[in-house]
Amino acid sequence: MAEFFRSFVNLISVLAIPLLIAVFFGWGFAKKVKVYEVFVEGAKDGFNTAVRIIPYLVAMLFAIGIFRASGAMDLLTSILSPVTGLIGMPSETLPMAMMRPLSGSGSLGIMTELMKVHGPDSFIGVLASTMYGSTETTFYVLAVYFGSVNVKNGRHALPAGLISDFFGMLGAVFICRILFVN
Asked: Could you identify which of 18, 120, 152, 182 might form a hypothetical disulfide with 125, taking C-beta atoms 3.0 to 4.6 angstroms apart as the criterion?
């Protein structure tokens, strides 16, 4: 069963991006949309958005720096590590799991550190990479993007984002255990 699952996941990973690109181009062609021109127009808007989010980005990175430098992350990691052991998640990946909803660059730094220490082909390296790709930077999105377009009431955005991050982490542990632990 595990071998079939591995083969299926490998097939999906090889075909996913090319099929997605083909669907976008095919849909645009069917709707008679000038795909390249629309892409360029979106890129122009993206630059303006990038300029508008700089103040929110600086504030968010400052808050994350304080969280890490204060030792709060290390304290939280030591408290939660017995729980992560029960689900088969190495305690070394817990800082990655905690940082990912806060910051993409912060979690990328943690993931890079894990890769240097444990290696990219180790279970910890593969799990950290899968966690990175399976979750979103929820607080970053709320602070930066919602702030840049003046969203005052995010309603269910925070709980929905954190719930999806939680299940993304659990899914990463589950999938990596199936695919990479013999």
From this structure: 120
